[in-house]
Amino acid sequence: xxxxxxxxxxxxxxxxxxxxxxxxxxxxxxxxxxxxxxxxxxxxxxxxxxxxxxxxxxxxxxxxxxxxxxxxxxxxxxxxxxxxxxxxxxxxxxxxxxxxxxxxxxxxxxxxxxxxxxxxxxxxxxxxxxxxxxxxxxxxxxxxxxxxxxxxxxxxxxxxxxxxxxxxxxxxxxxxxxxxxxxxxxxxxxxxxxxxxxxxxxxxxxxxxxxxxxxxxxxxxxxxxxxxxxxxxxxxxxxxxxxxxxxxxxxxxxxxxxxxxxxxxxxxxxxxxxxxxxxxxxxxxxxxxxxxxxxxxxxxxxxxxxxxxxxxxxxxxxxxxxxxxxxxxxxxxxxxxxxxxxxxxxxxxxxxxxxxxxxxxxxxxxxxxxxxxxxxxxxxxxxxxxxxxxxxxxxxxxxxxxxxxxxxxxxxxxxxxxxxxxxxxxxxxxxxxxxxxxxxxxxxxxxxxx
Length: 450
Hints:
Layout: H1 12-18, H2 20-37, E1 39-42, H3 46-61, E2 66-71, H4 75-90, E3 94-100, H5 103-111, E4 117-122, E5 142-146, E6 151-154, H6 159-184, H7 192-209, H8 212-215, H9 218-246, H10 250-268, H11 283-286, E7 288-289, E8 292-293, H12 294-312, H13 314-324, H14 326-331, H15 336-362, H16 373-383, H17 395-414, H18 419-441, H19 443-448
Parallel strand pairs: 2-3, 2-4, 4-5
Antiparallel strand pairs: 1-6, 7-8
Helix pairs in contact: 1-2, 1-18, 2-17, 3-4, 6-12, 6-15, 6-16, 6-17, 7-9, 7-10, 7-15, 9-10, 9-15, 12-13, 13-15, 16-17, 16-18
């Protein structure tokens, strides 16, 4: 009688590659790869650019330097100007003027200077503009036109880019927590992308009704956000009821809900983008605490809580048991139906939270939000080592998978690869991850009669 090889990995290498540590190694390799591919001449911008230019000016002209600052009227250049002026003033240098605006405004201010100055300090994008020509050189108001010096570095490793990666992946990673639990129970949820739209639309719709950009206070923002999350949790409960109570295949149930929820979001928003929200609504999505995006801090806290729940609590053990062998779990006193209902509620609530974060980042809500997010979420979970056949998976593996997806997308964007190439690569990554998982489990042998 042949001996079953089910559950026996073919070799240690495949097991390592498909496991959590293997995916961490892949993430590190991708980071190194895109670091090398994006090496080149870099020009510091923002606060770091302002600080570096201040050092250049002080090194050349000393603490008694007189400087005029010119920059664009953008967030990055505002940071540049503030950092530059702060550093120069702290060192005792004289800032005779600072303008953020178009070339005409800069020219007008330079024309009013009554004496010669040492330097016109400009943000990098303004360096080549002809507006400064009449004011630079011997006998002119300024002797030097200066911008932050270039340096050799990696665009991928810049602090702004790393912060951008973390902020962009926060919504996907939050949704992936709930998706991990659903997939561990051998289910799937295709509605999470639509739930993002529903939550974003409900929250912004209520904010608009509670006073909008002018009158909605912090309490209104919190209430509206909680209602959006609760609406998605109710949808998750309905989906779980259909899957657990009526044995509707998860693929069919969530596919149907994906359409229903997306249509509902469009209807609530009246096919418009709701943007009548106060500026402080962006605190969660775009705000910083200790230099870290608030949405990233939220993501980290949620992953710690989810990891503890899945590895240390009875509910976590029941979720694994339901996915591994539902009949054995039932005979052990676990209710697979109840567990499935719970995980779909959790997935719905987390999708709702993700929708609030996205609405905060974009300062609006619309029915189109979250389109195709379900594919990226499933990709993050699968790449992180969770088995699509249930019973296996780790929360932190999912976080690694989410960052792998984010790094790949970000790296390809930096290399200016088209969306069609990104789709091909993302699909290949999912397929390879699933293949490695099947090889690790050894279940492919029994399926093929090997």
